[in-house]
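ugh ok so i messed up the first submission bc i forgot one of the chains. this is the corrected input, ALL of the components this time, i swear. 680 residues overall. if the numbers dont match what u have on ur side tell me asap before i send this to the collaborators (the ones from the other lab, u know who)
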Amino acid sequence: MINHFENLSIDPNELPGLEGINFKLIDPNYLKVSLISSVLFFVILIGGAIAIIEFSDIEEKINSYLISMSVIIILAAVNITLTILGFKKKQYALRQRDIIYTKGLIWSVRTTVPFNRIQHAELKQGPIERLYKINSLKLYTAGGQSSDLVIPGLPDKDALSMKDFVLKKTEEDGTKQS
Amino acid sequence: MEQNNHDFSIPQRQPSVAIGIILIKFFRMTIRAMWPILVSLIIGRRAGSTFDDIILYVVIGFAAYNLIGSVLTYFRFYYYIKDNAIVLDKGVLKKTRTNIPFERIQTINFSQNLLHRLFNVVSVEIDSAGANKSEISIDALSKDEAIALREYIIAEKEHLISESGTEEEKEISLDRSPSELLLHLTPSDLLKVGVSQNHLRSMGIIFAFVFTTMNELTNDIGDFVSDQFTQFESFAEHNTLFAFVVSAILVTVISFLFSLGNSLLKYYDLKLWMSKNGLKLVRGLLNREEVTINRNKVQMVSWSTNPIRKLFKMYTLQIAQASSSEVNAHKSKINVPGSYKEQLAKVINMVFPSEYLGTEVKHSISPVIKFRIVLFYGVLPSLVALSAWFLIQDTAFYFLLALPLSFFLGQAYHKKRSYEINEELIRSNGGIVGTENVLTQIHKIQAVKVKQSWYQRRKQLATIKLYTAAGEMSIPYIRLSEALQLENFVLYRVQTDKREWM
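and heres the new structure output, hopefully the right one now
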């Protein structure tokens, strides 16, 4: 491989790259959780649309129903397809010094946060997630909202140990903050 | 420790002027939230309308609430020093006590608005660093007392650190070394800054303001406009060009005056001092603001210029520092317009290790981005306009102008966009009409993102984003292999660097 950066003291090709990293899929239950939440969302949306149409004084109600329902159904179909297809793209990996999370079917994003830059970590569980016993691990960095990392779909038994592992690593790697 | 005439150990209230200042602060907050109601009340008030009366009572009620609230706030507010920490007791319904130990205090900033200056008081903001972030602000202190307080805290802090602190702590202790006045915006420089402001932005602000105000005042803006301009309209119909030229000139002049006035208010008598450990900035005409920038907290330095400013050989310097609280976010980015090249160089040399500041190879981005820009800013708008032909008829042709425009946009963007990297620093260059450069130290990066759209994946390209504690740097459309090497190198440097990023 060519080295694009001749002026650096270390050849980036010699650094551990992405090859041979063991990316893990998140828990399949997360797919169920996201499907249930999008179905709920669209049910509420349909309810809202019905309420608006019924309470307004539109004369041609059938037309309004046809238009609004077909739009909602198309949106729902797209959303659900993307959710199902995109699920396989949600993967994470723990390396020696950082944590990686990838996602995105059309726009793929890979976020890497070094352990020594993590400010704190917390586990979150919504009501539907609780039913399926999965958690989201949220890692806060000083980089603000857009660089905080959320890894969803971690089963109860793994989530806590993973959080502890990350925090332990953070402590080992982190420079002391005064 | 010469100023022993102030005893800070006893809990004290602020001077009584503070009531007024707190009151005005409350009042401004209320007015900012409710001014549309007030304006419509004054202008559109009809006698005998019960609805208007109710609103009036609500407004009066709010004013009374403010008055009582600010008086109570004043009486329940105490500050004092205890066990080498500054303590603040406040709260009307819920009492809170904030406590910042001297070692953790990072900056002590004063600011003065018109009222403060009238009564010779300052408002004080004390900012701390570290994991448990907190911040203290005192609305009004007499100037002497504030200075004495600052001197006292700095002296005590130095004393504490010299007794028990580590070498490193000594280095970052509060700054007392002599400082050099690096930049002073003279009236002529201020004028140049005002003239070279982004007038298009002012135009946008004015338009937004006018339209929102009108929307609040009249429910039907269309009716309002046609009511007001019927006469003008019939005249304008026959003199379209004249009307266009007149309104264009009017808008230009207003925007120009607006940005001129704005820069006068904001940057009047701007002074930037530099010392070994940081920078200090004072600026403003009515609102005299003082900001201290700690060298270690600086995350990014950027400088930009536009064609007019370039004529004056001036740059806008922006220093982004890690802020300890979200509330204070506006203070985390400090703009110094009207900096000349040598002043720029001095600041950069102070903030970043100078041995790494040489010139490096400019890595350009993929030319493919030009096609994308033409597609998104040229072809797509034209297609949308043409497909809306039946609605807007011949006007659709004007949208075809987007094609050549987007072509030049793409050319300019690609030509100026590049990045440079060495062991220590990474710099991104960009701009379309002007130029914009951002420089940061690699070990200050907090997270790395590599993004690929569906199109980028096909072309083996990627966009890389680097996040620091005070903003992000993005390098779009570089080869995937290059992005991966960059990602690996940045991560390696971040993970092996034991220096503190703040």
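quick check: Residues 89-173 of chain A form a domain with the PH-domain like fold (CATH 2.30.29.30). that seems consistent at least. The CA atoms of residues 13 and 164 of chain A lie 32 Å apart.
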